[in-house]
Write a structure and sequence with these properties.
alpha+beta, globular, four-stranded antiparallel β-sheet, 9 helices, 16% strand, single chain, Alpha-Beta Plaits
Length: 159
């Protein structure tokens, strides 16, 4: 099985500092739409980790405020499995695609109702509650940066 196919049912992300006080409610909401929480770890990210995660934004005006915010408190890193596809195997949408629609707009103030960012985000810019890998092809990169690749693989391999 190709790596991207193996990772189609996996989501990697973290609850950001603004939503840390409500991490239990965030995770309960995620589980309510048939994602299972396979692995969690609460950590204070190092500056080099945050800069590597958000490197694609390095030239953007908001980069430093994004880094400062990400480092302002604890984050809860999560690895999820999409259990919706277990029940409905004909669904070919990747877990990342389904999770991105649950996340909502990157600007929490513009996110649609009933999305995670609308419900748990606390402002504009980086205060949008959750970071999640945008697509299957990026999971390896972000998992290596967060030092969780071995967990991602183990979870993806067990069906």
């Amino acid at each position: 099985m190709k790596e991207n196919e193996m990772l189609d049912d996996v989501v990697l992300g973290f609850v950001k500092p603004d939503a840390a006080p409500r991490v239990g409610a965030v995770l309960a909401r995620i589980e309510s739409v048939r994602f299972s929480i396979e692995w969690l770890h609460t950590v204070q990210l190092h500056e080099h980790t945050a800069r590597a995660l958000y490197a694609e934004h390095a030239e953007r005006a908001f980069f430093e405020s994004l880094i400062d915010f990400t480092l302002s408190g604890l984050v809860t890193v999560f690895i999820l499995r999409d259990r919706y596809r277990d029940k409905y195997p004909e669904i070919r949408q990747s877990a990342q695609t389904r999770f991105r629609s649950l996340l909502g707009n990157a600007d929490a103030m513009k996110a649609a109702e009933h999305t995670l960012r609308h419900e748990f985000g606390t402002g504009t810019g980086p205060r949008n509650a959750i970071h999640a890998t945008a697509e299957t092809s990026l999971i390896r990169r972000e998992a290596m940066i967060l030092d969780v690749w071995e967990y991602v693989v183990a979870i993806a391999e067990r069906k």
